[in-house]
Each structure stands twice: as structure tokens, then as C-alpha cells.
Task: inverse folding
């Protein structure tokens, strides 16, 4: 199985794109952001909250690991991902506009918002938290560029069955966010119809 | 900010053919701020808006875009005395398509968009500079496009070698190869043949 090449600049560019798109979505009317298209589907703000929750377990893992990694003599812009992370990363992107590789949301990442009662301030706070997670990711990527990332692997949020190095974890989070941005766009289409 | 005499000279040279002086153009010289970047530090990231227009005091910077596979494709370089920054992003305040990275430690002078605009608002002669700089940029891009389309790899290498500025002679060959749209191996072979 071919392994995915992870590139620092590609990851940064995608984070910046996500940030720009989310900034635009933040401007949408509150009632639309709170609206669930149907009982089983999350609202936009729930998806954003889910992305915030999904980032949290990685925050300290990434920071701690970065701290322990030895410094590289030259910046390393390309890293070959291991087989299992590659398998996950390749299946993340939507195919022809549809998400083929379904993943069950773990309980700890399920947003427990009282959507109807959220006011504009609370909604903005969730968006800000998400932007902060992107800023964190941006800093981690720039930092790991100067480190020997392959030296340390840690358990993913899924558990010990999937282990990541820092670069793979960043890619996983970005892919996860991109997938949910796609979901947000689909929710907005349904809500606006 | 109080500029040193060297910084004033750099700015005067960078804005030729204008004859700028501290006495006649105080607002121009007051606006610049110093900044510095470490080796391999990103100055501008693709997807972010370029906030500044830079004049490089010292150092070499590279501008590149990512292709569909995420590989870097080098578009150009900036070095001592030249402009830097993603100009289209700066002018339109839209996200940049390119990265700018400092290949060596860099010292720069910078202004933001409102400061840049204030030069045009306060000094009519900047319209003349604007016309000249945009014409130069346009002609430069067309010439490069023609070279990339019509010249062989060997010819591109020879043309570039003749005009290669001194600061670029010590940067990694892979960047020069990418700028000339050839593989590092081809670049290395042509260099050996020279």
C-alpha cells in the first residue's frame, strides 16, 4: 500500500483555507447556524463544536511530544506517513462530493449543546475556539518542521490501535476538519432550501 | 521610526527614479518599521493575506507556490535592496496563493497597506513610480514566461547564469533548478558542463 507524503507547506495552506472558510461561515445568520436540517443531522454550530472537541485530546499530546523531539539540523518539509495513518488519511476526503468512508463519532466528541438556546455570543465563542485550534495547529506544524518527528509516536484519539507522529496527527486533524467543512456546506444547502 | 543613514540610502535606491529626500518627503521616511526573520522562517503563508510591503536590507527570500501534488514551484527570489511580499495579495487584501520564506536570516523594512497608500495620497510623484514599477513587473513576468516556453533547459540555465545576482549564488541548487523549471539533477549536470 502506497504511503502518503505529508508536506508542511501543504498542511499550512489547508489550515489557512479552513480558517478563511470558517470566518465566512461565522458571518451567517445565527438562526441558520443553529438549524438542524432533520433530527439525525447536526446543525452547523454542532459540527464546529465537534471539531473543537476533536482537537482537544491532541493539543497536549502534540505540545508534549514537540517538547521531547530532537531538533533537526535542516527543516524537514516532507515526511512519509506510516501505513495505518496513510490508510486513514487517504480515505478521509469526500469522493465526488460524497463521504464514502464513514466514521462513528465517539461519545466524548459528541457536541452536547442546547442548540436552540445558544445566543450569538456563545456561537461566536465556539467559532473562536475553533480558530484557536487552527492557530495551535499552525504553530505545531511550523515547530515540527525543525524536529525529527519520526522519533516519537503516540496513541491517537481512537486508541492504541492507531499511533501517530506529530506530522501524521496534524494531517489527521486537518483531514477531519476538511471533512466536516464539507459536511457544513451540505447542511447549509439543506437548511437554505 | 528613526532610520539609519544606510536604511535611508536603501529606500532611496529602491524607489528610483524618484528623488526622495528626508526634507521633502518626511512622511515617507517616518512610516517604515524594521523587522527581521530567521533562516527558513515563513514571511507570508499561502492562504493568508499579505499585510506588508517589504524592502530587504539584507538576506535572501524565496517565493513559491504549491502544485497539485503539494510540491514547491519556485517563482522568484528577493534579496538585498529589492522589494518583497506577495504584491497581489497586498494590493487586493485577498489571501495569498504563494509562500515567502527567508532562506537566510533577513532584515527588512516594511509598511502596511494604509502607509503604502498614504505615499500616493501625499506625494503625487509616487504615481510616476507606481506606473514604472508596474510596467517593470509586467515586462519582467512576460520575459520570464517567454524564456520558460521557448528556451531549452540548457539555454535557460545559460541565460540565468549570466545574470544570476551574487546573493543567489549560495542558495541550495534545488531552488534555482525549480525556478528554471528543471530537475535538480539536470541543473547539477548543466552546472558541471559550464
Result:
Amino acid at each position: 500500500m502506497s504511503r502518503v507524503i505529508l508536506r508542511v507547506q501543504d498542511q499550512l495552506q489547508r489550515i489557512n483555507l479552513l480558517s478563511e472558510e470558517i470566518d465566512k461561515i461565522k458571518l451567517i445568520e445565527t438562526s441558520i447556524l443553529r438549524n438542524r436540517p432533520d433530527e439525525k443531522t447536526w446543525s452547523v454550530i454542532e459540527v464546529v463544536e465537534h471539531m473543537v472537541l476533536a482537537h482537544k485530546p491532541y493539543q497536549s499530546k502534540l505540545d508534549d511530544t514537540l517538547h521531547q523531539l530532537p531538533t533537526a539540523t535542516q527543516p524537514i518539509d516532507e515526511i512519509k506517513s506510516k501505513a495505518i495513518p496513510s490508510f486513514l488519511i487517504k480515505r478521509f476526503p469526500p469522493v465526488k462530493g460524497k463521504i464514502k468512508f464513514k466514521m462513528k463519532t465517539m461519545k466524548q466528541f459528541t457536541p452536547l449543546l442546547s442548540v436552540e438556546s445558544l445566543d450569538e455570543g456563545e456561537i461566536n465563542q465556539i467559532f473562536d475556539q475553533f480558530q484557536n485550534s487552527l492557530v495551535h495547529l499552525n504553530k505545531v506544524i511550523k515547530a515540527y518542521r525543525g524536529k525529527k518527528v519520526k522519533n516519537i509516536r503516540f496513541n491517537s484519539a481512537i486508541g492504541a490501535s492507531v499511533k501517530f507522529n506529530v506530522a501524521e496527527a496534524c494531517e489527521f486533524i486537518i483531514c477531519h476538519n476538511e471533512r466536516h467543512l464539507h459536511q457544513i456546506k451540505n447542511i447549509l444547502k439543506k437548511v437554505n432550501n | 521610526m528613526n532610520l539609519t543613514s544606510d536604511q535611508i540610502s536603501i529606500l532611496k535606491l529602491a524607489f528610483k527614479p524618484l528623488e526622495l529626500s528626508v526634507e521633502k518627503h518626511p512622511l515617507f521616511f517616518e512610516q517604515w518599521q524594521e523587522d527581521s526573520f530567521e533562516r527558513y522562517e515563513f514571511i507570508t503563508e499561502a492562504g493568508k493575506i499579505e499585510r506588508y510591503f517589504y524592502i530587504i536590507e539584507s538576506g535572501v527570500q524565496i517565493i513559491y507556490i504549491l502544485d497539485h501534488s503539494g510540491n514547491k514551484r519556485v517563482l522568484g527570489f528577493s534579496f538585498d535592496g529589492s522589494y518583497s511580499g506577495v504584491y497581489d495579495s497586498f494590493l487586493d487584501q485577498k489571501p495569498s496563493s504563494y509562500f515567502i520564506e527567508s532562506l537566510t536570516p533577513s532584515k527588512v523594512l516594511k509598511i502596511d497597506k494604509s502607509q503604502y497608500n498614504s505615499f500616493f495620497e501625499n506625494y503625487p510623484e509616487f504615481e510616476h513610480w507606481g506606473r514604472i514599477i508596474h510596467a517593470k513587473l509586467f515586462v519582467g513576468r512576460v520575459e520570464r514566461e517567454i524564456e520558460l516556453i521557448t528556451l531549452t533547459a540548457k539555454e535557460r540555465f545559460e541565460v540565468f547564469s549570466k545574470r544570476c545576482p551574487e546573493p543567489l549564488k549560495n542558495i541550495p541548487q534545488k531552488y534555482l533548478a525549480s525556478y528554471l523549471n528543471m530537475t535538480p539533477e539536470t541543473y547539477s549536470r548543466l552546472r558541471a558542463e559550464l
Remarks:
- The domain at 5-192 of chain A is CATH 1.20.120.450 (Four Helix Bundle (Hemerythrin (Met), subunit A)).
- Chain A touches chain B at residues 5, 7, 9-10, 12-17, 19-20, 75, 77, 142, 145-146 (CB under 8 Å).
- The first strand of chain A starts at residue 5 and ends at 7.
